[in-house]
Amino acid sequence: MTTYKGPEWAIGLQRHLENLQANNEAMAELRRGRGKNPDDCVEMHRWVSQFVSERQLGTGREWAVYTVASEFALHKDLHSCDESLGWSLAKAAGHGSLSEVGLERRLLQLIRSRNNEELCRRLPRVLSLVASEGVPISWPRLAGDVDRWDNDKGVIAKRWLRDFFNRSNNPQEPDAAAIIQGAI
């Protein structure tokens, strides 16, 4: 069994979605919720509503569950990882067919999102770019980040930026250890 990092509820969501992968009806209904407000995703409710309590309706948790479930269904063949979205974007830039500058611009647009609803409306385009390169995404970490966005935006944004600009993620630039080694 694969282990994941992230909030317990988000790891449970990941495992639940993995169990649904072979169910074409479930995957189709989850995909139809892509980019929509959770209130408008009636078809998704039977598959993911158990991950959102009554008191969490209209919160970041609800947006996280519905956004991640719809994106997972669309990109179900992607491997999962335990890294941040910034790391995934850096890896996509490292593949060479996507512009690092363009991906940086997308990342900056994401972190300017005022709330988790705005973040979730911007995520599908960015996740499609990452998926087009076959780069893994940590669904549990992403769900946890979306859930906490309204309260911890600064911390999450800094982590995404740090992971995107970390030189060890960029194969075209030497990492700090290589620079130090070369200086000795």
Task: List key phrases describing it.
184 residues, mainly alpha, Peroxidase, domain 1, 9 helices, disordered C terminus
What does this structure look like?
By secondary structure, this protein is an all-alpha fold. The chain has a single domain (8-167), classed as Orthogonal Bundle (Peroxidase, domain 1), CATH 1.10.520.40. It has helices at 8-20, 24-31, 45-48, 60-74, 85-94, 100-111, 116-132, 139-165, 176-183. It starts with 7 loop residues before the first helix and ends with a helix.
| Gap from first CA to last CA | 43 Å
Task: State which percent range the strand residues make up.
Answer: under 5%
The coarse silhouette is: globular
CATH classification class: Mainly Alpha
| Whole-number tally of structural domains | 1
CATH topology: Peroxidase, domain 1
**Could you report the average pLDDT, rounded to the nearest whole number?**
89
The CATH architecture is: Orthogonal Bundle
Structural class: mainly alpha
What are the secondary-structure elements, in order, as H or E? HHHHHHHHH
DSSP E strands, number? 0
